[in-house]
């Protein structure tokens, strides 16, 4: 053999490798097995390896002496760089890169199986561990690392390369290689996995003599040097010497691994892989690990969406031979919802922690972020590997179905359309962020409309109607955002000035008109519009009232939806929207969208009374005088209209009073009136409906009403129908007046009529329903009477 | 802020006991032990429907010149005893109740852990942290 001149780096590297292969600790001869494994890890064709061994003289000697070993390594480098293998090339080739050895993930797998080193169960355990087919082989061994010469250069951690398949021979050198690599790279996080792997290995090895052969070869790249080193440290037999001599430590372990079979290798690969791979980001779970955990989960609980009861989990984790105290702590960490059972995510977290502990990683005090069971799990378990690494358990479907996870995911699912984070939810980009988006979503909805927030909160009710409304609200707020505010802004200063309803009405009308026109696009979104307008109105209409409205944003805000969701209100909205500026028209326009804040009855009672007086004073010629005193709102309304549009006030006012008198008759509640007055002030036609709704229903009902569909309103409106009709009819005469004025007035009046029609139609339907109800009651009573009668006759 | 918190099993042996002034531990242990008599007395006093009528919170068991002892019994006869310093601005009853509630919750969490055998001393870190939070800050 030619004399070999090595560079310093090469010298160091080769010596390390030699030490690594020096399983017998002879310091002279490298064990054949390990050397061969190492050569295999070099990913060279076997004939090349044979040639190398021949060239270096090992075949001649029958063993690898140090010189032979070095020569072989050099030749490997030569071969890897593509140069022909020549003895002469040993020294002639300059700047030869150090030979590279790829380590597969077998080690991880072996380590993992080692974690549960029931010697007798080893086989069964391996059977238990569903070695993902080909896992030990070519499977996504992303962690497969390429061992680079451990030059002090920073190691790029080429972690994921196809694992070197050395099925029948544990690449005992692989850990060694890894160490080298690690050493070069310094302590990076990936070291941990290696440590983990090592740790796993050690116990495993101890459990049974060296089965972890292929596992070694399959070390995942994710087992960085630290793993090796700690792994080394686990081997008490070989006190960790300098990190540069990990081989010594590795060797004993690897010896045991040499006996590994392919099957066990794959197992260990898995073990190592997921045991070591989980710590890239210190507690991140790699895909392979996750898949492994899932497979394990399946063995206990076939249903991936189900739970593992505590007892079963206890048995399973007891196999890991961790002290009960630690297992208890792990359980505390991983049982996120404290229900005594483990979902898939929780199980993965627990498993991960066990693996970590096995590799002498201290358990965290709190569950790491990446291990937290994700609230939303869209992925199927099969897709787990595809999940983003930082998401941890995000992909677990278990979280989705059971309610173990917080309400966030359910919220997310409930509002898939509305949830802005929906995309994230689906893509699993960031679990935590998705939950954040969930909250954001809610918060967005609430403050979505600053106006609403100011005046009254945008109701976020989980009813379908609400959902729709909210959507509309969102749309509206999005586009119509500025509009409401501007008018509102303009109004407040004026509001303070406006004490009289009339002026305030004007303002409101103007503003509302503006705002409304701006929200034309949202005519369909009556609720939001009305709410916006309402807000505007509340500001402009009556400062005290407006303020009150703002002050009392009851959670179920008096959504005008009751009034506006109906076609009538739609018409009204439309009509109002169409109406051009014109103060009168604006006034009209303003009305429909206004949604009188429902809960205001009590609050507004005060100011309302004041208003009432004013309203009463307001000329409402068209309305019957009796209505005025009865319905301060009505008065307000009419006054409102009077100011806004001399022509058409009656219609709205009448409509409102129609409902008011009816309601009053039914309820006779003062506060109702106040509510009505609010309604009136705030909207024209819409108020009719809303007033009805609000007034008709007894205090609890109004709130409910908002939520109810209009049908409910109809029911309540039944008693009012007659009055309404009367008022409507009474309002008719006022219409011609408007007609004569102006084309716009005509149109407005037409709209009013339409609105009136719709209102009446609604009233009619409501009355019909009431009639039906009454009939039913009557029938039931009659039946009862019948039942009683025979007895009476007796 | 408690001075001593103890969890006593059904058979009247302690599952968990922690005192803040570590030096006087024995005194507190003794206090807790004697308080068990009072607890028993209060439990048996109810007589009729065991769990139904009996409230979990027992209230002040007995006061001494230095401290007060409060008791709480679960439906499984596990007793929680809290000793508070009398000089401490007397904690309101509600606060004591909330402390017991928290104890009870964390105790059930410990129980849920399959690795915990009922009857073992409680070594859960979570439980420890809850208890520490309730104890008087070590001066």
Q: How would you characterize this protein structure?
A:
Chain A: This is RalBP1-associated Eps domain-containing protein 1-like isoform X2. Chain A: Residues 158-168, 402-411, 526-543, 620-630 have a biased composition (Polar residues). The complex is a heterodimer of chains A (794) and B (139). In chain A, 64% of the residues lie in helices and 2% in strands. With 794 residues, chain A is an all-alpha fold. Chain B is α+β, with helices and mostly antiparallel strands and 139 residues long. Chain B has helices spanning 25-46, 50-53, 93-112, 125-134, and strands at residues 2-8, 14-19, 57-63, 67-73, 79-85. In chain B, 34% of the residues are buried. Classes of the chains: A mainly alpha (794), B alpha+beta (139). Chains A and B meet through helix 16 and helix 17 of A and helix 3 of B.
Short description:
The complex is a heterodimer of chains A (794) and B (139). By secondary structure, chain A is mainly alpha-helical.
Strand-helix topology:
The complex is a heterodimer of chains A (794) and B (139).
Chain A (H helix, E strand, L loop, with lengths): L7 H14 L7 E2 L1 H10 L4 H11 L1 H4 L2 E2 H15 L8 H4 L8 E3 L2 H10 L5 H8 L16 E3 L25 H13 L5 H17 L5 H5 L7 H10 L11 H12 L4 H16 L9 H14 L7 E2 H9 L5 H11 L6 E2 L1 H15 L38 H4 L6 H8 L7 H6 L3 H18 L1 H6 L8 H17 L1 H16 L3 H18 L7 H16 L1 H9 L9 H4 L2 H12 L4 H8 L9 H18 L9 H4 L1 H13 L4 H18 L3 H13 L2 H12 L3 H8 L2 H22 L2 H8 L1 H51 L1
Antiparallel strand pairs in A: 1-2, 3-4, 5-6
Helix pairs in contact in A: 1-5, 1-9, 1-13, 3-5, 7-10, 7-14, 9-12, 9-13, 10-12, 10-13, 10-14, 10-18, 12-13, 14-15, 15-18, 17-18, 20-22, 24-27, 25-26, 25-27, 26-27, 26-31, 26-34, 27-28, 28-32, 30-31, 30-41, 31-34, 32-34, 32-36, 34-35, 34-36, 35-36, 35-37, 35-39, 36-37, 37-38, 37-39, 39-41, 40-41
Chain B lengths: L1 E7 L5 E6 L5 H22 L3 H4 L3 E7 L3 E7 L5 E7 L7 H20 L12 H10 L5
Antiparallel strand pairs in B: 1-2, 1-5, 3-4, 4-5
Main location (chain B): cytoplasm
Family (chain B): Belongs to the TRAPP small subunits family. Sedlin subfamily.
Pfam families (chain B): Sedlin_N
């Amino acid at each position: 053999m030619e004399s070999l001149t090595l560079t310093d780096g090469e010298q160091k590297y080769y010596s390390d490798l030699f030490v690594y292969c020096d399983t017998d600790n002879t310091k002279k001869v490298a064990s054949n097995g390990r050397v061969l494994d190492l050569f295999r890890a070099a990913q060279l064709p076997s004939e090349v390896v044979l040639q190398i061994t021949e060239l270096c003289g090992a075949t001649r000697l029958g063993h690898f002496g140090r010189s032979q070993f070095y020569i072989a390594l050099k030749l490997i480098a030569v071969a890897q760089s593509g140069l022909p293998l020549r003895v002469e090339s040993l020294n002639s080739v300059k700047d030869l890169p150090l030979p590279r050895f790829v380590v597969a993930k077998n080690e991880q797998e072996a380590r993992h199986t080692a974690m549960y080193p029931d010697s007798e169960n080893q086989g069964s355990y391996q059977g238990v561990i569903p070695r993902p087919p080909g896992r030990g082989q070519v499977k996504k061994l992303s962690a497969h690392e390429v061992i680079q010469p451990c030059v002090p250069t920073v190691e790029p951690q080429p972690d994921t390369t196809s694992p070197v398949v050395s099925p029948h021979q544990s690449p005992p050198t692989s850990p060694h290689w890894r160490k080298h690599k690690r050493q070069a790279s310094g302590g990076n996080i990936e070291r941990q996995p290696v440590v983990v792997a090592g740790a796993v290995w050690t116990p495993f090895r101890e459990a049974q003599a060296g089965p972890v052969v292929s596992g070694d070869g399959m070390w995942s790249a994710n087992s960085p040097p630290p793993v090796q080193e700690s792994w080394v440290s686990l081997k008490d037999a070989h006190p960790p010497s300098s990190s540069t001599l990990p081989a010594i430590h590795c060797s004993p372990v690897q010896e045991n691994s040499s006996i590994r079979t392919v099957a066990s290798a794959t197992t260990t690969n898995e073990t190592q892989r997921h045991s070591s791979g989980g710590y890239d980001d210190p507690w991140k779970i790699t895909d392979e690990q996750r898949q492994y955990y899932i497979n394990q989960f399946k063995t206990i609980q076939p249903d991936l969406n189900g739970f593992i009861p505590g007892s079963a989990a206890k048995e399973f984790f007891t196999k890991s031979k961790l002290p009960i105290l630690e297992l208890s702590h792990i359980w505390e960490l991983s049982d996120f919802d404290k229900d005594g059972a483990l979902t898939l995510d929780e199980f993965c977290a627990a498993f991960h922690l066990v693996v970590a502990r096995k590799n002498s990683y201290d358990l965290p005090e709190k569950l790491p972020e990446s291990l937290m069971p994700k609230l939303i799990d869209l992925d199927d378990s099969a897709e787990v590997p595809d999940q983003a690494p930082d998401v941890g358990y995000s992909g677990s479907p278990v979280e989705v179905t059971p309610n173990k996870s917080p309400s966030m995911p359910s919220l997310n699912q409930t509002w898939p359309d509305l949830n802005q984070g929906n995309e994230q939810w689906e893509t699993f980009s960031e679990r935590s962020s998705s939950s954040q988006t969930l909250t954001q979503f809610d918060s967005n909805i609430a403050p979505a409309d600053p106006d609403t927030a100011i005046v009254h909160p945008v109701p976020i009710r989980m009813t379908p109607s609400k959902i729709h409304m909210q959507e509309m609200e969102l749309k509206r707020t999005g586009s119509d955002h500025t509009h409401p505010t501007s008018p509102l802004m303009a109004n407040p200063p004026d509001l303070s000035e406006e004490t009289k309803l009339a002026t305030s009405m004007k303002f409101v009308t103007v503003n509302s008109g503006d705002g409304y026109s701006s929200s034309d696009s949202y005519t369909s979104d009556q609720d939001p519009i009305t709410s916006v307008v309402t807000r505007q109105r509340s500001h402009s209409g009556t400062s005290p009232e407006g303020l009150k409205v703002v002050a009392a944003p009851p959670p179920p805000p008096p959504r005008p939806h009751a009034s506006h969701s109906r076609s009538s209100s739609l018409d009204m909205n439309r009509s109002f929207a169409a109406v051009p500026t014109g103060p009168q028209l604006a006034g009209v326009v303003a009305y429909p969208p206004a949604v009188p804040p429902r809960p205001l009855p009590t609050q507004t009672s005060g100011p309302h009374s004041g208003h009432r007086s004013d309203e009463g004073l307001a000329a409402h010629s068209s309305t019957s005088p009796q209505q005025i005193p009865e319905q301060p709102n009505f008065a307000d309304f009419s006054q409102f209209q009077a100011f806004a549009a001399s022509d058409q006030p009656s219609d709205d006012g009448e409509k409102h009073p129609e409902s008011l008198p009816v309601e009053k008759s039914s309820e006779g509640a003062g506060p109702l009136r106040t509510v009505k007055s609010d309604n009136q002030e705030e909207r024209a036609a819409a108020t009719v409906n809303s007033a009805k709704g609000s007034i008709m229903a007894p205090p609890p009902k109004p709130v409910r009403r908002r939520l109810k569909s209009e049908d409910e309103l109809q029911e309540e409106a039944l008693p009012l129908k007659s009055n309404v009709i009367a008022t409507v009819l009474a309002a008719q005469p006022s219409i011609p007046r408007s007609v004569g004025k102006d084309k716009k007035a005509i149109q407005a009046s037409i709209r009013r009529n339409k609105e009136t029609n719709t209102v009446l139609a609604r009233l009619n339907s409501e009355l019909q329903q009431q009639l039906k109800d009454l009939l039913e009651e009557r029938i039931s009573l009659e039946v009862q009477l019948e039942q009683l009668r025979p007895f009476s006759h007796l | 802020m408690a001075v001593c918190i103890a969890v006593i099993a059904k058979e009247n042996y302690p599952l968990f006991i922690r005192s803040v002034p570590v030096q006087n531990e024995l005194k507190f242990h003794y206090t807790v032990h004697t308080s068990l008599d009072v607890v028993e007395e209060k439990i048996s006093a109810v007589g009729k429907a065991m769990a139904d009528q009996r409230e979990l919170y027992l209230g002040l068991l007995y006061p001494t010149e230095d401290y007060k002892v409060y008791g709480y019994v679960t439906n499984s006869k596990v007793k929680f005893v809290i000793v508070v310093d009398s000089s401490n601005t007397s904690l309101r009853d509600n606060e004591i109740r909330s402390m017991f509630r928290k104890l009870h919750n964390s105790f059930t969490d410990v129980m849920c852990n399959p690795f915990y055998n009922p009857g073992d001393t409680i070594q859960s870190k979570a439980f420890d942290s809850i208890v520490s939070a309730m104890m008087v800050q070590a001066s």
